[in-house]
Design goal:
Number of strands: 8
CATH class of the largest domain: Alpha Beta
Shape: globular
CATH superfamily of the largest domain: Cobalamin-binding domain
Radius of gyration: 19 Å
Number of helices: 11
Largest sheet: 5 strands, parallel
CATH architecture of the largest domain: 3-Layer(aba) Sandwich
Strand order of the largest sheet: 5-4-6-7-8
Structural class: alpha/beta
CATH topology of the largest domain: Rossmann fold
């Protein structure tokens, strides 16, 4: 009998190697790291992971492109409500050659996660958490003015928070990542009625996929109702769902972090 092969998601593989998700994803796409698809997402075996050369592993305490060193100062600027200072840090990362994906996933998202943890532990006031989110939204707005990927536009991606979901920042982050890859994001923002999502989807030109951005507010029954309505109107349109869900409706692509949106879109669109 063949011994079961232990598999890991790319996010888990990145954590094990001390690298960023996008770095491990590039290894997979380049053939450096064998991988297989499971439920629409990439998986790698622990055996193949361990066979990677130590040269590929990140130095201790440092992230891809050393952007981890910028996340700390960025967090401090966020906590201080320093929008100009926050942007200077982000701009410095771009000037060093970092991509939008790398800045978002290695600088902005870790800092936001830390803000959320500080607030949950009672070490931040509500206004401080809201102020930090506002600074990030302003940065995302400025990033829209950066040079876009050249070439043919790859279609539209509708992004919406389903009913009851009031956290709109993850949707805004997703929209900027999608834009950076040459897709046209249509972000409907927080707490969208189901019929509004369906109407917007039906009226969006060259719709490639729909992303439902959730954190914790939407109930499972409402999420299932939203997906059912979309599938009933647009049965061939892929639907992705972000957030922590143990039992997603059928024919739904689960998102394992922001970068997996891009992974799924590449699978849908093709190389």
């Amino acid at each position: 009998m063949n011994e079961a092969i232990e598999m890991l998601s790319l996010n888990k593989a990145a954590e094990r190697l001390g690298l960023h998700y996008m770095t491990v994803y590039k290894y997979v796409r380049s053939g450096k790291l064998p991988a297989r698809k499971s439920g629409g997402s990439w998986e790698v075996s622990i055996k193949d992971l361990n066979s990677l050369s130590s040269v590929e592993r990140a130095p201790s305490g440092r992230g891809h492109r050393s952007l981890g060193s910028k996340s700390g100062p960025f967090l401090q600027a966020l906590l201080a409500g320093d929008a100009p200072g926050s942007w200077l840090i982000v701009q410095g990362a771009f000037d060093s050659g970092a991509s939008v994906e790398e800045v978002v996933c290695e600088v902005i998202v870790p800092a936001l996660r830390a803000v959320g943890e500080e607030w949950a532990d009672g070490r931040l006031e509500v206004y401080e958490e809201h102020r930090a989110s506002s600074v990030v939204l302003s940065i995302l707005g400025r990033m829209q003015g950066l040079p876009q990927r050249r070439g043919k536009k790859l279609g539209s991606v509708l992004i919406a928070c389903p009913p009851q979901e009031t956290h709109g920042l993850p949707a805004a982050i997703c929209a900027e990542l999608v834009r950076s890859r040459g897709y046209h994001p249509v972000n409907l923002g927080p707490d969208c009625p189901i019929d509004t999502i369906v109407q917007a989807a039906r009226s969006t030109d060259e719709l490639m996929a729909i992303v439902l951005s959730t954190v914790s507010s939407t109930s499972p029954s409402v999420l299932a109702e939203t997906v059912e309505a979309i599938h009933g109107s647009l049965p061939e349109t892929p639907v992705m769902v972000g957030g922590v869900w143990t039992d997603l409706p059928d024919k739904v692509l689960s998102l394992d972090g922001f970068s997996s949106v891009l992974d799924h879109l590449e699978q849908i669109h093709g190389p």
